[in-house]
Amino acid sequence: MIFLGCIALIGIVALARWLEGSWHTPGAFFASFWALAAIPACLSNLPVGASAVFLVVLFSLSCVLGSVLGLGSAARWAGSDATQSDVFVGRLNELRAIVLLFGLAGLFAPPLLMLSEGRSVEQLTSVSAWIEFAAEITVARYREDYNAPVMVRVLMTATYIGSLVAGLLMRYRKSRLDTLVALVPVVAASAMSLATTAKATFLLSIVLTTGAYIASSFLTERSRTGGRMLTNLARWSALGLAVVGMFVGSMVMRYQSSRPDAVAFLADRLVTYAFGHMSALSAWLDAQAFAEDELAFGSYTFAGPVAALGFFQRQAGIYAELNYNDYTVESNVFTIFRGLITDAGFAGALAATAIAAFVAGRAVRRIRADRASPITLVPLTVFYAVTLWSHVVSIFTYNSLAVAVLAYAVVCWVVLHPQHANAPTSGRSLG
Fold first, then answer.
1. CA atoms within 13 A on the CB side of 405
2. Dihedral of alpha carbons 33, 34, 35, 41, sign
3. Are the C-beta atoms of 67 and 26 separated by less than 8 Å?
4. pLDDT, tens digit, for every residue of 232-268?
5. DSSP string covering 209-238, please?
6. HEC profile for 298-361?
7. In the Cβ-directed half-sphere of 136, how many Cα atoms lie within 13 Å?
8. In the Cβ-directed half-sphere of 280, how many Cα atoms lie within 13 Å?
9. Cβ contact 411:168 at 8 Å
10. b vs e for 91-112, b when ≥16 Cβ sit within 10 Å of the residue's Cβ?
11. Positive or negative, the Cα torsion across 117, 123, 124, 130?
12. Whole-structure pTM over 0.85, yes or no?
């Protein structure tokens, strides 16, 4: 059954690519991402249930359906309405300044966090002090009552804002200097990840930048070929792999001195990090815990804002542990699907996915038809960022990301200006 599920998923990817005429349109992108997130997990040594694979198939189908309906005449069979020039003119100097400002602000988060935990200024220059601090903060992060200082969270939000705008800068860049500027928020996020051993900080920065870049690629889809876009994405992927390699190297050095099976242990942990989401999802589906819960109506998908408003008490790790069936692994990464199903039920979750894909497809259609406003780019960017993090959880679990998206909308409004007279200039004309 698992094999049939994988074949079905590959078939959906091929169908989406044929219907939408591109790999980076919403439906094709979502299906392709989940083929890469699910099929290798089935080939690993981790336990994966057929129910989890077919759940991915259903969500991929829903996304492709919504995307194709949203694209409408912008799908592969009717792409002649697309413009041949830039949809918006971007203010390059403003983009550079925003990315630098917010990226450099994020660089102050690690030392500020260290000082807030009682370290001295002199210890900021000590490698051993940073290593000791990283070990202590790692333990502290798993305490339910632990919260980073407000200013540190503000600076990390700045990093995420810079990461989103960096995607736009990559789209409008004129030189290698612009590429280096776009890397500043990623460097800031990497520094925070090294200081706290929280890999999510760095990965989310990459996710936001990549999501904004893919979304903004539609603005000049005809003047910059898909091949060039894929080349640029490959460069970002190479950068991500290089930084991940740095993490792996540091972990190997750390465990070699304390345990004889360090390499095997590290390899096992990496497999769990990469594919544990499918086993965790299988565990939850097999336990049928969803049948016992009342609908949460957005409290998990939008856990950050809902908790901030006082309507939901968020647990450490989001969900309670599952430790009583054959699929359980050491992971609380149950994918975005658990939150969607808990919030809206199976049918509601599939419908919500189709609606989100429809909105994203509609945004692409309006951009291609030269009828988009600058704000049209925001839901499209959110769609790609949510997809890239959907193997973990909804990005709106984090208040900092919700604030970053709002700030990104303001930036789009300020720095992007329609190139053509028939393009809307008001945010009221949303795609």
1. 22
2. positive
3. yes
4. 566 656 766 665 665 565 555 444 445 566 667 677 7
5. HHHHHHHHHGGGTTTS-HHHHHHHHHHHHH
6. CCCCCHHHHHHCCCCCCECCECCCCCCCCCCCCCCCCHHHHHHHHHHHHHHHHHHHHHHHHHHH
7. 11
8. 24
9. yes
10. eeeebbebbbebbbbbbebbbb
11. negative
12. yes
Q: Which residue has the tokens 């760095």?
A: 202
Print burial letters for 392-414: b (CB count within 10 Å at least 16), e (below 16). bbbbbbbebbbbbbebbbebbbe
Q: Dihedral sign for Cα 140, 153, 408, 397, please.
A: positive
For residue 88, report the phi and psi dihedrals to the nearest 5 degrees. Answer: -125, 150
Residues in Cβ contact with 239 at an 8 Å cutoff, skipping those fewer than 6 apart: 183, 186
Measure the CA–CA gap between 356 and 70, rounded to whole angstroms: 10
At 187 the pLDDT is 92
Residues 6+ apart with CB under 8 A from 266: 248, 251, 252, 255
Residue 114's Cα: distance from chain center in Å?
A: 27
Task: List Cβ neighbours of 282 (8 Å cut-off, separation of 6 or more).
Answer: 47, 48, 49, 51, 52, 327
Helices (H) and strands (E) in the chain, counts: 16, 2
Closest C-alpha among 277, 152, 270, 164 to residue 216? 164
Q: What is the pLDDT of residues 14-54, one digit of tens each?
A: 999 999 988 889 999 999 999 999 999 999 888 899 999 99
The answer to whether 216 and 224 are in contact (CB under 8 A) is: no
**Which tokens go with 172?**
């409008």
> 376-386 pLDDT, tens per residue?
999 999 999 99
The DSSP code sequence of 139-186 is HHHTSTT----HHHHHHHHHHHHHHHHHHHHHHH--SHHHHHHHTHHH
What is the Cα–Cα distance from 2 to 43, expressed in whole angstroms? Answer: 10
349 has pLDDT over 60: yes
pLDDT digits (tens, 9 = 90+) for 144-159: 556 788 999 999 999 9
Backbone angles phi, psi at 294, to 5 degrees: -80, 155
Please measure the distance between the N-terminal and C-terminal CA atoms of the chain and give it in whole angstroms: 40
User: Does residue 109 have a pLDDT over 90?
Assistant: yes
